[in-house]
Design brief:
The chain is α+β, with helices and mostly antiparallel strands and about 90 residues long. It contains 3 helices and 4 strands.
Length: about 90
């Protein structure tokens, strides 16, 4: 299942969060595949990951929670969402 993990980078934790990211790379643990990650110039960003291991995803999000407010949302690709919507409007 795919999830979008979005965050904002508060000024108060900017430096320690950047230091951790530069040192460790911010990669998710085994069992969570990083599809892509994007960093906005506003201090906000998001990553899309694929996993069936909720515990591994939770561990990754918890690892960063002291620096970043994070939101994790299950997501569907267009074709998947389209088939659900099409079944509703037959």
């Amino acid at each position: 299942m795919k999830f979008m993990v979005s965050w904002s980078l508060p000024q108060g934790t900017f430096r320690p969060a950047v230091a951790r990211f530069l040192k460790a790379g911010g990669m998710p643990p085994a069992g969570v595949k990083l599809i892509g990650r994007w960093h906005g110039m506003s201090g906000k960003g998001c990553a899309v990951v694929d996993t069936d291991d909720a515990k591994a995803l939770y561990a990754w999000v918890a690892e960063w929670s002291e620096f970043l407010p994070l939101e994790t949302t299950p997501v569907l690709e267009d074709a998947e969402a389209g088939s659900v919507l099409a079944s509703m409007y037959k």
